[in-house]
Amino acid sequence: MSVTPTKFETKCNIINEKLDELRVQRQDLKSKKNELDEKLTEIKENREELSNTFADLSNQTEEFINSILNFLKELEEDSQGYEPLNRFVKDAKKCVEKINLSSIKDDQEPPKEYIDTAIKLFSFMKLLEEKIQNAETFLSEKVRVKRRL
Amino acid sequence: MSFSPTHFEIERRLIYFDKRLKGKALICLPEDLIKRFHLFPAEDILLESGGTKIVLKIGVPLDDSDAVRIDPVYDYVLPTNPNTKIQIKKKIDQILPAKDLRLLIEEQVDKEEVLDLIHSERLFNINAFYTLKGMKFVLSTANTNMEITSVMASRDLITEIITFESLEDWKSKWSDFLNKEKEAKKLEKSIGSLEQELSQKENQLQELCLELQEKVKICEKWEQFFAPLMAACGLYDNKKKNEIVQQIKKQAERYKRFSEQKGEIELQSGKMTFEKIKENLSNIFSLSQTGTDIKREDISTTLKIIVEETEELLRNVCNTN
Q1: Domain total for chain B?
Q2: ipTM of the predicted structure?
Q3: Are B2 and B115 in contact (CB under 8 A)?
Q4: What is the pTM of this model?
Q5: Which of the listed residues B86, B105, B124 is the one where a domain comes to its end?
Q6: Over the stretch A101-112, which tens digit does the pLDDT of each residue have?
Q7: Among all residues of chain A, which has the CA nearest to that of B144?
């Protein structure tokens, strides 16, 4: 026979509430943990992707630089009869030869002279197009003069 | 009345077994209280746990045969001479599983108050008084003075009055409560480790974010290098490269040819001038034949010019070749 409103039951209710709260808290923490895990995985993947992209870019760039160096060598040889272009090609070749990508890493900034060289190379490629165009115009003009004569 | 911790530690393990209730009730009372108020006959002091019954004889040396004589249900008879209390405690600890004892007597109560109350109200029919997990319980029988127990409850001396009729139900509730408390502890522990894990992961995430930010910064720098290179690459692919080389070769060839032909062109141009001069000369001669008055000087000057121009032309041709 229970004579008082039971404090024990109150305590039971408290523990029940506490248990519910704890379960919710644990569930929240688990969800948060899952979210964090996902974020971590995503960031790790991003990091890996970044490293891979960087490695790919480095390889591509290295290939491109080697290829452009060969191209410039050919151009240097082939433009021997055309002095202004030949000089221009020689300068560009010197500039590109300064780039050495074998030792670069994605946790180090590129040397400033690499950036300058890349910009120069881009300008060179644009100028080369113009020069070829000019040469073509020049020669076409001469041929026209010759024909007229 | 005061108790030293050691004394209390021993005394609180004394559980009174009320014979009248045929082993149903358990009470925890200090030995001093039993002695002081002569609440119970000495031979009735019993320790019971997990079905093991032990009778304690206060101040009276007993042998095992006494136990059999007193009550054959007793498993052990231990003398409780105050001088041998430590040994008794050790023996009790050996006999009774500690967890069972912990279940029965967990927390200390304000004994002074309880004892005073028991004394003043002569609560001889309180069958069990014990505390568990901070709660104070009175296990009551049908003849328990409910008025007094209510007073105790109102004075917060007890948390719960449990009748023997509701004992089984209470036990199951208590067990449920204990399980829940255990689960709560487990959950708290699990939450603690989850929080720790989360904190570690958050730190890891923060470190990774910083690392990634750093990498992105570095990559942005590399982009300044790659972007013009790639743009240059866009102006230049293998097909284009071959075209450029072919074009350059062709143009260099044409330029060379042009340089070689330059002399010929100039020669032809000179020839044309020569022809023109010749034509002029023949015109002059024609004029002279038609009787026009031509001065000798004019002819001489014209011839001189022809010679000079021819010489110049020849020089040019020689130089070009």
Answers
A1: 2
A2: 0.70
A3: no
A4: 0.46
A5: B105
A6: 776 676 788 888
A7: A1
